[in-house]
Every structure is written in structure tokens, then in C-alpha cells.
Predict the 3D structure of the following.
Amino acid sequence: MAQLFSYWHSVRYHGGNCLGGPKLLVFVLLVSGIYGQGQPVEKISPDVRTIQNAVNEVVGTPAPWGGVLQVAKGAYLEGYGIVVSLEVAFDPPVNPFSPQKTPEEIRSTAAQRLKDVQEKLTNVLKQKVAQLESVGPAESVSVVLNILNTNPAYLPDMPSQIIFSVKKQDTARVSLRQYK
């Protein structure tokens, strides 16, 4: 077994024809300097954070039973505007260890929460979009609300996604599109 790897011993202790020590370090630094130069990273616009925070305040904070599953995360898309995405569940899943609710209670609770979130998000977009500096007059702000239906047997008509969209030049008109 020692003969199979005997060349390693000779290279290590006798200098061999390899890059060693300082030569290797200089080579790595030069190569990383050449290939490590990339595009400068831009900072996220404060307007994106403004919309993210406003959406998070409206929808609420993450809850162990569901509620907000994914907090609002936004991005500025050049030529379009700001897009914010989040995921929510309006009711915890029914299980044998939680207090039993009737199907009607589950439907009414989810419908009321959906209505409240729609009204609040619409109002926030109407108020905030006009104040955004990084969004051009022809650009838009959209909020993609992904909804996890935790009780599909009781809520078969619950949309899985609602997109709120408003143009900066017409903040009074927020369009809503629902997808199942």
C-alpha cells in the first residue's frame, strides 16, 4: 500500500514540479482578482421597503397556525415598477386536536378575512403609490397575494392567488385579479 502512494511523499518533501506555498497563493489571488470582478450590486430602493412594510402591516405578522406564511418580499422591475409577493392562510387547518369549528364558521371567518385584506391592501396602495419616488408615472405597483387554502373541503371557491395592481398615474383605480 505504501508503494501506491509513494510519489506523494517525494513531491511533498523534495519540492517536485508543482506550485507550492507562495507561488500558489499568488496564483490564486491573481485569478480571483481577474474573475472576481462582477457587476456592482445595486441597493434595494427605499420605496420597495416602504411598500413591503405597508403590506406586512396590513396583512399581519406570521402566526404559528398559519396567518402570514411568507412575509412580503418585493423587487423593482425596470420598466414595470414594484412587485411584492407574500403568502397567507386565512384559517388554520382543521384537525382533531384543535377546537372544532363548523364548516359554516370556517367559511365565514375565511371570507371575512379575505374581504378585510382586500379592502386594506387596496387602501394602502391608493395611499402609498403616489408618494413613491423610484416609480415612474407610467409604471405600476403590484402585490401578489398567494393564499394557501388549508381547508379545501370547506372552502372550494377560495382563490389561490389575488393580484392587486395600480398605476402611479391613476392611484384611485386598483385592479384586482383572482385566480383559483
About this structure: The first helix runs from residue 6 to 14. The radius of gyration is 28 Å. DSSP finds four helices and six strands in the chain. Residues 6-35 form one domain.
